[in-house]
Amino acid sequence: MDWERRLYLAAHPLAYPLLRGLARRGPVVRVPGIGVVVNDAATAREVLMDRETFRKDGPGSPGDLWTPVLGPSVLLNMEGEEHRAMRARLAELFTPAYTEALCAEVLAGPLARLADRLERGAVVDLVDTMRTMAGTVIGRVVGLEAEERDYRALFEGGERITAMVSLRTRRLSDRQIAVAREVLDPLGDIAAKAYAAGDDRTVMGRMRSLGLSEVEARGAAGAFFLTGTETVATLVPRMIALLCDTGTLDRVAADPDGLLDRAIDEAMRVVTPTPVMLRGVHARAEVGGVAVRPGDRVLIATHNCCAAHGPFDLDRPHPPELRRLWFGAGPRFCIGYPLAMAETRAVARTVLAAAPVRITRRAAARGVLLPTYRRLVIRKEAGA
Protein backbone atom coordinates (compact mmCIF):
# COMPACT_ATOMS: atom_id res chain seq x y z
CA MET A 1 0.00 0.00 0.00
CA ASP A 2 1.46 3.38 -0.95
CA TRP A 3 2.12 5.89 1.80
CA GLU A 4 -0.34 8.51 0.58
CA ARG A 5 -3.17 6.02 0.96
CA ARG A 6 -1.85 5.05 4.40
CA LEU A 7 -1.94 8.68 5.49
CA TYR A 8 -5.56 9.09 4.41
CA LEU A 9 -6.63 5.86 6.07
CA ALA A 10 -4.83 6.75 9.30
CA ALA A 11 -6.53 10.15 9.42
CA HIS A 12 -9.97 9.01 8.25
CA PRO A 13 -10.33 5.21 8.47
CA LEU A 14 -14.07 5.33 7.72
CA ALA A 15 -14.58 8.58 5.80
CA TYR A 16 -11.76 8.02 3.31
CA PRO A 17 -13.05 4.69 1.93
CA LEU A 18 -16.50 6.31 1.74
CA LEU A 19 -15.13 9.31 -0.16
CA ARG A 20 -13.23 7.14 -2.63
CA GLY A 21 -16.22 4.86 -3.01
CA LEU A 22 -18.34 7.85 -4.01
CA ALA A 23 -15.92 8.55 -6.86
CA ARG A 24 -17.03 5.27 -8.41
CA ARG A 25 -20.69 6.34 -8.25
CA GLY A 26 -20.26 8.97 -10.94
CA PRO A 27 -19.29 12.64 -11.44
CA VAL A 28 -22.05 13.91 -9.12
CA VAL A 29 -24.00 11.96 -6.51
CA ARG A 30 -26.45 12.92 -3.77
CA VAL A 31 -25.56 11.34 -0.42
CA PRO A 32 -28.05 11.51 2.48
CA GLY A 33 -26.61 13.29 5.48
CA ILE A 34 -23.68 14.70 3.50
CA GLY A 35 -25.04 16.56 0.48
CA VAL A 36 -24.46 16.59 -3.26
CA VAL A 37 -20.95 15.30 -3.82
CA VAL A 38 -18.95 16.45 -6.87
CA ASN A 39 -16.17 14.11 -8.05
CA ASP A 40 -15.42 15.73 -11.42
CA ALA A 41 -12.95 18.61 -11.85
CA ALA A 42 -14.82 20.41 -14.65
CA THR A 43 -18.09 20.32 -12.70
CA ALA A 44 -16.30 21.41 -9.54
CA ARG A 45 -14.84 24.43 -11.32
CA GLU A 46 -18.30 25.38 -12.62
CA VAL A 47 -19.67 25.31 -9.07
CA LEU A 48 -16.79 27.38 -7.74
CA MET A 49 -17.20 29.98 -10.47
CA ASP A 50 -20.99 30.41 -9.91
CA ARG A 51 -20.88 32.63 -6.84
CA GLU A 52 -24.56 33.56 -6.96
CA THR A 53 -25.95 30.03 -6.78
CA PHE A 54 -23.24 28.35 -4.72
CA ARG A 55 -22.07 30.46 -1.81
CA LYS A 56 -19.80 30.39 1.23
CA ASP A 57 -22.38 32.01 3.50
CA GLY A 58 -25.71 30.67 4.73
CA PRO A 59 -26.88 27.09 5.45
CA GLY A 60 -24.58 24.28 4.38
CA SER A 61 -21.65 26.60 3.70
CA PRO A 62 -18.27 27.23 5.38
CA GLY A 63 -19.89 30.24 7.02
CA ASP A 64 -22.10 27.87 9.00
CA LEU A 65 -18.95 26.33 10.46
CA TRP A 66 -16.63 29.27 11.02
CA THR A 67 -18.67 32.43 11.57
CA PRO A 68 -19.36 31.57 15.25
CA VAL A 69 -15.61 31.27 15.75
CA LEU A 70 -14.10 33.92 13.48
CA GLY A 71 -16.88 36.47 13.16
CA PRO A 72 -18.74 37.55 10.02
CA SER A 73 -16.00 39.49 8.22
CA VAL A 74 -13.36 37.05 7.03
CA LEU A 75 -12.91 36.04 3.41
CA LEU A 76 -13.79 32.38 3.91
CA ASN A 77 -17.40 33.22 4.92
CA MET A 78 -18.12 36.33 2.86
CA GLU A 79 -19.85 36.81 -0.48
CA GLY A 80 -20.91 39.56 -2.87
CA GLU A 81 -19.64 43.12 -2.78
CA GLU A 82 -18.34 42.79 0.78
CA HIS A 83 -16.10 39.92 -0.27
CA ARG A 84 -14.86 41.74 -3.36
CA ALA A 85 -14.05 44.86 -1.33
CA MET A 86 -12.23 42.94 1.42
CA ARG A 87 -10.24 40.86 -1.07
CA ALA A 88 -9.22 43.95 -3.03
CA ARG A 89 -7.89 45.59 0.13
CA LEU A 90 -5.97 42.50 1.21
CA ALA A 91 -4.59 41.55 -2.20
CA GLU A 92 -1.48 43.73 -1.98
CA LEU A 93 -0.54 42.04 1.32
CA PHE A 94 0.00 38.72 -0.44
CA THR A 95 1.89 39.58 -3.61
CA PRO A 96 4.66 37.14 -4.62
CA ALA A 97 7.33 39.80 -4.01
CA TYR A 98 6.12 40.56 -0.48
CA THR A 99 5.61 36.94 0.56
CA GLU A 100 8.99 35.83 -0.79
CA ALA A 101 10.71 38.67 1.08
CA LEU A 102 8.77 37.84 4.25
CA CYS A 103 9.72 34.16 4.13
CA ALA A 104 13.35 34.95 3.29
CA GLU A 105 13.59 37.17 6.37
CA VAL A 106 11.56 35.14 8.85
CA LEU A 107 12.93 31.74 7.86
CA ALA A 108 16.59 32.74 7.41
CA GLY A 109 17.63 31.31 10.77
CA PRO A 110 15.51 28.12 10.70
CA LEU A 111 16.57 27.36 7.11
CA ALA A 112 20.25 27.85 7.94
CA ARG A 113 19.92 25.45 10.87
CA LEU A 114 18.12 22.92 8.68
CA ALA A 115 20.81 23.14 6.00
CA ASP A 116 23.57 22.73 8.57
CA ARG A 117 22.00 19.63 10.14
CA LEU A 118 21.50 18.00 6.76
CA GLU A 119 25.02 18.75 5.61
CA ARG A 120 26.43 17.27 8.84
CA GLY A 121 24.52 14.07 8.15
CA ALA A 122 22.23 14.52 11.15
CA VAL A 123 18.71 13.12 11.06
CA VAL A 124 15.92 15.67 10.62
CA ASP A 125 12.25 15.15 11.43
CA LEU A 126 10.74 17.18 8.60
CA VAL A 127 7.31 17.13 10.25
CA ASP A 128 8.54 18.84 13.40
CA THR A 129 10.66 21.20 11.31
CA MET A 130 7.69 22.27 9.20
CA ARG A 131 5.44 22.79 12.21
CA THR A 132 7.99 25.21 13.62
CA MET A 133 8.51 27.00 10.33
CA ALA A 134 4.81 27.30 9.53
CA GLY A 135 4.18 28.65 13.02
CA THR A 136 7.07 31.09 12.63
CA VAL A 137 5.69 32.49 9.37
CA ILE A 138 2.13 32.85 10.60
CA GLY A 139 3.52 34.36 13.79
CA ARG A 140 5.10 37.15 11.76
CA VAL A 141 1.86 37.60 9.83
CA VAL A 142 -0.17 38.22 12.99
CA GLY A 143 2.57 39.94 14.99
CA LEU A 144 3.71 37.14 17.30
CA GLU A 145 7.35 36.74 18.27
CA ALA A 146 7.96 33.61 20.33
CA GLU A 147 10.24 30.66 21.01
CA GLU A 148 10.20 27.55 18.81
CA ARG A 149 8.29 25.55 21.43
CA ASP A 150 5.56 28.22 21.39
CA TYR A 151 5.21 27.93 17.62
CA ARG A 152 4.83 24.16 17.98
CA ALA A 153 2.10 24.71 20.59
CA LEU A 154 0.42 27.21 18.27
CA PHE A 155 0.36 24.66 15.47
CA GLU A 156 -1.01 21.95 17.76
CA GLY A 157 -3.81 24.31 18.79
CA GLY A 158 -4.79 24.68 15.15
CA GLU A 159 -4.84 20.92 14.75
CA ARG A 160 -7.24 20.68 17.71
CA ILE A 161 -9.66 22.97 15.91
CA THR A 162 -9.55 21.42 12.45
CA ALA A 163 -9.75 17.88 13.86
CA MET A 164 -13.28 18.68 15.05
CA VAL A 165 -14.53 18.80 11.44
CA SER A 166 -15.70 15.74 9.47
CA LEU A 167 -17.60 15.15 6.22
CA ARG A 168 -20.89 15.28 8.11
CA THR A 169 -20.11 18.38 10.17
CA ARG A 170 -22.43 21.28 9.38
CA ARG A 171 -22.00 23.34 12.55
CA LEU A 172 -19.67 23.25 15.49
CA SER A 173 -21.22 22.49 18.87
CA ASP A 174 -21.08 24.99 21.72
CA ARG A 175 -18.29 22.95 23.31
CA GLN A 176 -16.32 22.89 20.06
CA ILE A 177 -16.77 26.64 19.60
CA ALA A 178 -15.45 27.15 23.14
CA VAL A 179 -12.38 25.00 22.36
CA ALA A 180 -11.74 26.94 19.16
CA ARG A 181 -12.02 30.27 20.92
CA GLU A 182 -9.67 29.09 23.64
CA VAL A 183 -7.03 28.70 20.91
CA LEU A 184 -7.92 31.69 18.74
CA ASP A 185 -8.76 34.41 21.28
CA PRO A 186 -5.14 34.79 22.51
CA LEU A 187 -4.04 34.91 18.86
CA GLY A 188 -6.64 37.61 18.23
CA ASP A 189 -5.29 39.61 21.18
CA ILE A 190 -1.79 39.46 19.69
CA ALA A 191 -3.14 40.52 16.31
CA ALA A 192 -4.99 43.42 17.92
CA LYS A 193 -1.75 44.64 19.53
CA ALA A 194 0.08 44.43 16.21
CA TYR A 195 -2.81 46.27 14.58
CA ALA A 196 -2.69 49.03 17.23
CA ALA A 197 1.08 49.36 16.86
CA GLY A 198 0.70 49.81 13.11
CA ASP A 199 3.99 48.03 12.40
CA ASP A 200 4.19 47.57 8.64
CA ARG A 201 6.41 44.49 9.12
CA THR A 202 3.24 42.63 10.17
CA VAL A 203 0.19 41.99 8.02
CA MET A 204 -1.96 43.26 10.88
CA GLY A 205 -0.12 46.58 10.90
CA ARG A 206 -0.50 46.88 7.14
CA MET A 207 -4.20 46.08 7.45
CA ARG A 208 -4.56 49.13 9.67
CA SER A 209 -2.82 51.33 7.12
CA LEU A 210 -5.26 50.01 4.50
CA GLY A 211 -8.20 51.14 6.60
CA LEU A 212 -9.49 47.79 7.86
CA SER A 213 -10.98 47.71 11.34
CA GLU A 214 -9.51 45.97 14.38
CA VAL A 215 -12.40 43.49 14.34
CA GLU A 216 -11.60 42.63 10.73
CA ALA A 217 -7.92 42.26 11.60
CA ARG A 218 -8.69 39.87 14.48
CA GLY A 219 -10.94 37.75 12.29
CA ALA A 220 -8.39 37.71 9.50
CA ALA A 221 -5.67 36.58 11.92
CA GLY A 222 -7.75 33.57 12.91
CA ALA A 223 -8.56 32.73 9.30
CA PHE A 224 -4.93 33.06 8.20
CA PHE A 225 -3.90 30.83 11.09
CA LEU A 226 -6.45 28.09 10.33
CA THR A 227 -5.78 28.05 6.59
CA GLY A 228 -2.11 29.02 6.47
CA THR A 229 -0.29 26.72 8.86
CA GLU A 230 -1.53 23.15 8.45
CA THR A 231 -1.66 23.36 4.65
CA VAL A 232 2.05 24.08 4.21
CA ALA A 233 3.20 22.07 7.22
CA THR A 234 1.51 18.92 5.91
CA LEU A 235 2.41 19.50 2.25
CA VAL A 236 6.20 19.77 2.44
CA PRO A 237 6.92 16.43 4.20
CA ARG A 238 4.48 14.65 1.91
CA MET A 239 6.03 16.26 -1.18
CA ILE A 240 9.57 15.27 -0.16
CA ALA A 241 8.31 11.74 0.57
CA LEU A 242 6.66 11.56 -2.87
CA LEU A 243 9.89 12.67 -4.55
CA CYS A 244 11.88 10.07 -2.60
CA ASP A 245 9.37 7.27 -3.19
CA THR A 246 9.15 7.95 -6.94
CA GLY A 247 12.91 8.33 -7.34
CA THR A 248 12.60 11.88 -8.69
CA LEU A 249 14.15 13.90 -5.85
CA ASP A 250 17.63 13.91 -7.39
CA ARG A 251 16.18 14.97 -10.74
CA VAL A 252 14.44 17.99 -9.20
CA ALA A 253 17.53 18.76 -7.10
CA ALA A 254 19.62 18.92 -10.29
CA ASP A 255 17.30 21.53 -11.84
CA PRO A 256 15.25 23.28 -9.13
CA ASP A 257 14.72 26.42 -11.22
CA GLY A 258 13.13 24.37 -13.99
CA LEU A 259 11.39 21.59 -12.05
CA LEU A 260 10.59 22.69 -8.50
CA ASP A 261 7.35 24.55 -9.24
CA ARG A 262 6.21 21.65 -11.43
CA ALA A 263 7.00 19.24 -8.61
CA ILE A 264 5.09 21.40 -6.12
CA ASP A 265 2.00 21.54 -8.36
CA GLU A 266 2.04 17.78 -8.96
CA ALA A 267 2.58 17.09 -5.26
CA MET A 268 -0.33 19.38 -4.41
CA ARG A 269 -2.52 17.49 -6.88
CA VAL A 270 -1.71 14.19 -5.18
CA VAL A 271 -1.74 15.56 -1.63
CA THR A 272 -4.75 17.84 -2.29
CA PRO A 273 -4.28 20.48 0.46
CA THR A 274 -8.05 21.01 0.54
CA PRO A 275 -9.51 17.49 0.15
CA VAL A 276 -13.10 18.79 0.20
CA MET A 277 -14.78 22.19 -0.27
CA LEU A 278 -18.26 23.21 0.83
CA ARG A 279 -20.84 25.44 -0.81
CA GLY A 280 -24.39 26.28 0.21
CA VAL A 281 -27.05 26.34 -2.51
CA HIS A 282 -28.96 29.63 -2.77
CA ALA A 283 -31.07 29.06 -5.92
CA ARG A 284 -32.57 26.14 -7.81
CA ALA A 285 -30.06 24.70 -10.25
CA GLU A 286 -28.48 21.52 -11.54
CA VAL A 287 -25.03 20.18 -10.72
CA GLY A 288 -23.93 17.64 -13.29
CA GLY A 289 -27.55 16.74 -13.96
CA VAL A 290 -28.50 16.47 -10.26
CA ALA A 291 -31.16 18.96 -9.18
CA VAL A 292 -30.34 21.12 -6.16
CA ARG A 293 -32.41 23.68 -4.27
CA PRO A 294 -31.84 26.34 -1.61
CA GLY A 295 -30.67 24.80 1.64
CA ASP A 296 -28.79 21.94 -0.04
CA ARG A 297 -25.11 21.52 0.57
CA VAL A 298 -22.63 20.84 -2.24
CA LEU A 299 -19.49 19.00 -1.19
CA ILE A 300 -16.73 19.24 -3.78
CA ALA A 301 -14.57 16.15 -3.33
CA THR A 302 -11.39 17.87 -4.49
CA HIS A 303 -9.34 14.80 -3.67
CA ASN A 304 -11.47 12.64 -5.96
CA CYS A 305 -11.22 15.25 -8.73
CA CYS A 306 -7.42 15.17 -8.44
CA ALA A 307 -6.97 11.43 -7.84
CA ALA A 308 -8.79 10.69 -11.12
CA HIS A 309 -5.62 11.78 -12.92
CA GLY A 310 -3.48 9.01 -11.45
CA PRO A 311 -0.47 8.69 -9.15
CA PHE A 312 2.38 11.19 -8.80
CA ASP A 313 4.07 11.85 -12.14
CA LEU A 314 6.53 14.72 -12.48
CA ASP A 315 5.87 14.88 -16.23
CA ARG A 316 2.06 14.86 -16.01
CA PRO A 317 0.43 17.96 -17.58
CA HIS A 318 -2.57 19.33 -15.72
CA PRO A 319 -5.69 19.94 -17.83
CA PRO A 320 -7.23 23.45 -17.56
CA GLU A 321 -10.19 22.30 -15.45
CA LEU A 322 -7.84 20.83 -12.84
CA ARG A 323 -5.31 23.66 -12.63
CA ARG A 324 -4.71 24.37 -8.92
CA LEU A 325 -8.32 23.47 -8.16
CA TRP A 326 -7.30 22.68 -4.57
CA PHE A 327 -6.86 26.43 -4.03
CA GLY A 328 -10.25 27.34 -5.50
CA ALA A 329 -11.07 29.10 -8.75
CA GLY A 330 -11.74 32.56 -10.16
CA PRO A 331 -12.43 35.35 -7.66
CA ARG A 332 -12.40 32.71 -4.92
CA PHE A 333 -8.84 31.51 -5.64
CA CYS A 334 -6.95 31.39 -2.34
CA ILE A 335 -5.47 34.80 -1.54
CA GLY A 336 -2.73 33.14 0.50
CA TYR A 337 -1.44 31.05 -2.41
CA PRO A 338 1.72 33.19 -2.93
CA LEU A 339 2.61 32.83 0.76
CA ALA A 340 2.13 29.04 0.65
CA MET A 341 4.30 28.81 -2.46
CA ALA A 342 7.03 31.04 -1.05
CA GLU A 343 7.27 29.00 2.13
CA THR A 344 7.16 25.67 0.30
CA ARG A 345 9.84 26.73 -2.19
CA ALA A 346 12.14 28.00 0.57
CA VAL A 347 12.09 24.77 2.58
CA ALA A 348 12.10 22.47 -0.46
CA ARG A 349 15.15 24.22 -1.94
CA THR A 350 17.01 23.74 1.35
CA VAL A 351 16.25 20.01 1.40
CA LEU A 352 17.05 19.59 -2.29
CA ALA A 353 20.40 21.35 -1.85
CA ALA A 354 21.42 18.49 0.46
CA ALA A 355 20.52 15.78 -2.08
CA PRO A 356 20.80 12.89 -2.16
CA VAL A 357 18.69 12.39 0.94
CA ARG A 358 16.76 9.35 2.09
CA ILE A 359 13.90 8.63 4.46
CA THR A 360 15.07 6.73 7.53
CA ARG A 361 11.79 6.53 9.47
CA ARG A 362 8.17 7.57 9.08
CA ALA A 363 4.76 7.13 10.67
CA ALA A 364 1.27 8.32 9.81
CA ALA A 365 -0.67 10.74 12.00
CA ARG A 366 -4.08 9.85 13.41
CA GLY A 367 -6.94 12.06 14.56
CA VAL A 368 -6.15 14.92 12.15
CA LEU A 369 -8.24 16.65 9.48
CA LEU A 370 -5.52 16.92 6.85
CA PRO A 371 -3.74 13.58 6.34
CA THR A 372 -0.11 13.93 7.29
CA TYR A 373 2.92 12.21 8.73
CA ARG A 374 3.36 12.04 12.49
CA ARG A 375 7.05 11.92 11.74
CA LEU A 376 9.14 11.86 8.57
CA VAL A 377 12.82 11.51 9.36
CA ILE A 378 15.27 12.25 6.57
CA ARG A 379 19.05 12.20 6.29
CA LYS A 380 21.69 13.08 3.74
CA GLU A 381 23.11 9.87 2.30
CA ALA A 382 26.50 8.99 3.70
CA GLY A 383 29.42 9.77 1.41
CA ALA A 384 27.38 12.06 -0.82
User: Low-confidence segments, ≥5 residues, pLDDT <50?
Assistant: none
Which class of secondary structure composition applies to the elements?
Answer: alpha+beta
Number of strands: 10
Distance between the termini: 30 Å
Describe this protein's structure.
The chain is of the alpha+beta class and 384 residues long. A 5-stranded mixed beta sheet has the order 1-2-8-5-3. A hairpin with an 8-residue loop joins strand 9 and strand 10. Helix 8 packs antiparallel against helix 12, helix 8 packs antiparallel against helix 13 and helix 10 packs across helix 11. The radius of gyration is 20 Å and the shape is globular. The model has no long low-confidence stretch (mean pLDDT 87).
Brief sketch in words of this structure:
The protein is 54% helix and 11% strand. With 384 residues, the chain is of the alpha+beta class.
